[in-house]
Amino acid sequence: MAQETPIDDGWQLVWQDEFDGDTLDSEKWNTVIIDMAGAEGPRHHNDQYAQYLMDDDILLEDGILRLRAQKRTVEGTEPQGRYEYTAGWISTHNKFGMLYGRVEIRAKYPAGSGMWPAFWMLSTDGEWGPEWDIAEFFGNQSRMHMGLMYTEWPEVQWDSQSFISDTWTEDWHTYALEWLPGEARFLVDGEVYRTIVAEYVPAEEMYIILQNGVGTERSAAGVPDEDTIFPNYLDVDYIRVYQRDTEAAPIIKNAGFEAGLQPAFWEVSADARPLLKNPHSGRFSMRLRPVEGAYAQQVVENLTSNTAYTLRAWGQLEQAGDHLMIGVRDHDEVDISSTEYTQASITFTTGADETAVTIYCQRGAGSGDAFCDDFELISTAP
Ligand SMILES: [Ca+2]
Ligand SMILES: [Ca+2]
């Protein structure tokens, strides 16, 4: 059933979900809205949407992800309210982000006035804008929207186009975005539908959302009418992300610990935990208890050999006289000895065969907690 889309030789598969399991892969996906500017709560986006997000509307059947929309009344708590519809939503926020590359799904969209399913992307930084709408469907007009919101709230500017057809809901198609520096292409079944060449093509990491949805009177999708069939499904056979070699960038995952207690990307010792306490920014920091050698570390890949990089991160001690090291194993480290959040900066050059490094914060002896937050790794090559 899954057909291969022809891809240029230069594209390499870097991330995918074929939805072959019995349940959604929680290493890859969240099922609620996280850290999104303007969202009313984890399970309700805003007053243009009628639905409450429910995990039981996320189904995997025969290799297909089925994001269901149902007409049913629920009393919600996140946020509080009475909702007449429910739907499934998944996102890669804090689990996978991409800057440039090709992202593609094979999908079949649900029909009917009021239906508002979408394959879209938002900035990892949590602000609204930029936004990629790779395939956003407005059921009242059978209209597939392919667009970019390229400014940041409260300024809102769109570069957008829509295509009206019954084929979106009658047939399976592949929908892809090829996102390059200064240029982007929207493709359906490998055919370019739309190209944007502009300086406002986003140059920041973004995450992926797949959702079914139901509009309210305030939405551009209309509201359900007597012909809208419930339950209905956004069916997705697979999602695949490709990048060109030159675009693969070293990315520190969960760099500000905002994915919280999911330490999958960080290897931590028994006395190190991301906590909702003393963040440098956001809500979480990494807390190291006063045990000598307690650490959090992560292997970062996709570095270029023989290249200069700078690691930056913030650290703070509870007790004067304690020590916290932030560094790059086998290269260099900085000793933070301040009770104010202080930024460490470590410049290093990769070796001839070195394309991955281990970054860390690790404590020395002491009597108080130590905290680190907001890691970043940048290329400082000339
Ligand atoms: Ca599949
Ligand atoms: Ca943080």
Features:
single chain, about 375 residues, Jelly Rolls, 1 helix, globular, disordered N terminus, binds calcium ion
In brief, what are we looking at here?
By secondary structure, the chain is mainly beta. It has one helix at residues 167-170; strands at 11-17, 51-53, 58-61, 64-77, 80-87, 89-91, 101-108, 118-123, 131-138, 143-149, 158-164, 173-180, 183-188, 191-197, 206-211, 232-244, 267-268, 272-275, 285-288, 295-300, 308-317, 324-328, 332-336, 342-349, 357-363, 370-379.
Overview of the molecule:
The chain is mainly β. The protein has two domains: 236 residues, Sandwich (Jelly Rolls); 117 residues, Sandwich (Jelly Rolls). The protein is built from one helix and 26 strands. The strands form four sheets. Strands 1, 2, 3, 4, 5, 7, 12, 13, 14 and 16 form a ten-stranded mixed sheet that branches. The protein has a six-stranded antiparallel sheet with strand order 6-15-8-9-10-11, with no helix packed on it. It has a five-stranded antiparallel sheet with strand order 17-20-25-22-23, with no helix packed on it. Strand 3 and strand 4 form a beta hairpin. The radius of gyration is 22 Å and the shape is globular. The N terminus is likely disordered. One calcium ion (CA) binds next to strand 16.
